[in-house]
Design brief:
Residues 54-237 form the Oxidoreductase molybdopterin-binding domain. The protein has 2 domains: 11-258, Sulfite Oxidase, Chain A, domain 2, CATH 3.90.420.10; 268-397, Immunoglobulin-like (Sandwich). The longest helix has 7 residues, at 104-110. The protein is mostly beta strands. The strands form 6 sheets. A 5-stranded mixed beta sheet has the order 7-6-15-10-11. Strands 8, 9, 12, 13 and 14 form a 5-stranded antiparallel beta sheet that branches. It is globular and about 70 Å long. The protein has 6 helices and 24 strands. It has helices spanning 35-38, 82-86, 104-110, 133-138, 178-181, 236-239; strands at 5-6, 22-25, 30-32, 51-52, 59-60, 67-72, 78-81, 90-98, 123-132, 155-159, 173-177, 189-194, 197-198, 208-210, 225-229, 268-271, 277-280, 284-292, 299-305, 313-314, 316-318, 338-345, 349-358, 383-389. The relative contact order is 0.16. The structure holds the ligand Nc1nc2c(c(=O)[nH]1)N[C@H]1C(S)=C(S)[C@@H](COP(=O)(O)O)O[C@H]1N2 and molybdenum atom.
């Protein structure tokens, strides 16, 4: 067990949570904000940030004794304290974390998938404050942009203290390539702050990994040790989960080894000002939501259709509107979402469709069928919302 922090076996010591969250699973606690709450500010308030756990929330028993071990295929393993991490240059990175399971419920409606159901709000944007992993790894003699260590290490594994049933009660683990971990431009952080405050327990207190542009499953919370290893982590969530299979693969014929662990997330967008089926008496309506892409590819365009995808127009978008506490040292926001908004006239009924285009000209896929996969990850299909004028309700709704 790691020094100064424990992963409890039961759920009797969970932190307080905002009651407005929509709970998708109680134990482990998995919850997302309401759609309208998600887009009420560019930076997601901590209490409204989605929470995705695989076990009870760990407890820091003694922060002074807390140490992160750095070991594996390196010459000299060390242990670092919170003070050691805080003494390194501090960076603030504005990054959107998105769970690979975002919009899973919608995919499951088409054909059943396995996993916690999520609406379209299993993501959030925060200003993460902490040390760059590349600076931490310099403490064990690894210089920037290292491909491999002299003893053959090519991946950096992060190990937590929580107890996940998928790991048979063991801790959550994930890894990133050493090249990415030691690349200062990749902005991989060991974060101890979220939106300028000490990280909360739900989000990994005292220290978590943030891997911008990559599915959030790699941003390990409650970090206990870092291991330099030869191959990608063999942990459950790298080897037997969070992989993208084609629609033909089912639980009977799946061979996990045939696919790489998913890293970057693809371009994604969703309407958050409206529910999937919305009734209104208004003649004008606001369509607002988010668009985000992984790998540091910003959003180039957000396209909206109000006639089911026959004709399209571009939504106005805004990045960073009125951020109050954005500090000077913020390095970039290429890792973060854009929010968009547009006002349209409301006919008797309309089908609103949304798709985004990223800076690499990647476009969201039209149909969920083409990307359906048994674990229900990365549902990035065009988002549809049906609007009915309440005075003209179709027969089936009266
Ligand atoms: N130690 C640990 N880290 C973890 C997880 C976990 O269960 N345990 N869940 C991962 C997944 S799947 C996601 S989507 C994000 C969620 O981060 P959040 O709860 O801060 O939003 O954390 C990742 N890191
Ligand atoms: Mo996730």
């Amino acid at each position: 067990m790691a020094a100064g922090i424990i992963g409890p076996l039961e759920y009797s010591r969970e932190p307080p949570r905002n009651p407005s969250l929509r709970i998708n699973a109680k134990e482990p606690f998995n919850a997302e904000p309401k759609r309208s709450d998600l887009i009420s500010s560019y930076i997601t308030p901590v209490d409204l940030f989605y929470k995705r756990n695989h076990g009870p929330i760990p407890i820091v028993t003694d922060l002074d004794k807390y140490r992160v071990t750095i070991e594996g295929l390196i010459q000299n393993p060390i242990q670092v304290s919170m003070d050691d991490i805080r003494n390194l240059p501090k960076h603030n990175v504005t990054a959107t974390l998105q769970c690979a399971g975002n919009r899973r419920t919608e995919m499951s409606k088409r054909r059943k998938v396995r996993g916690v159901g999520w609406d379209a709000c299993a993501l959030g944007t925060a200003i993460w404050g902490g040390a760059k992993l590349c600076d931490v790894l310099k403490l064990v003699g690894l210089s920037n942009n290292t491909l491999t260590t002299t003893s053959g290490g090519r991946h950096v594994e992060f190990i937590s203290v929580d107890m996940c049933k998928e790991e048979n009660g063991g801790p959550y683990k994930a890894s990133v390539p050493l090249k990415q971990a030691t690349n200062p431009a990749a902005d991989v952080l060991l974060a101890y702050e979220m939106n300028g405050e000490v990280l909360k327990r739900d989000h990994g207190y005292p220290l978590r990994v943030i891997v911008p542009g990559v599915i959030a499953a790699r941003s390990v919370k409650w970090l206990a040790s870092i291991k330099i290893i030869e191959e990608e982590s063999q942990g459950f969530f790298m080897a037997k989960d969070y992989k993208m299979f084609p629609p033909t693969v089912d639980w009977d014929n799946i061979v996990w080894d045939t696919r790489k662990p998913q890293m970057d997330f693809p371009v994604q967008s969703a309407i958050c000002s409206l529910e999937d089926v919305t009734f209104t008496r208004q003649r004008k309506m606001t369509i607002a939501g988010y668009a985000v892409s992984g790998g540091g590819r910003g959003i180039e365009r957000v396209d909206i259709s109000v006639d089911g995808g026959k004709t399209w127009f571009e939504a106005s978008r805004h990045q960073k509107p009125g951020i109050k506490y954005i500090p000077d040292e913020v390095t970039s926001d290429k890792w973060a979402w854009v929010l968009f908004k547009t006002v349209v006239d409301v006919p008797d009924r309309m089908e609103i469709v949304l798709k985004a285009v990223d800076s690499g000209a990647n476009v969201q896929p039209e149909s969920v069928d083409s990307i359906w996969n048994l674990r229900g990850i990365l549902n990035t299909s065009w988002h549809h919302v049906h609007v009915f004028n309440a005075s003209q309700l179709p027969r089936s709704h009266i």
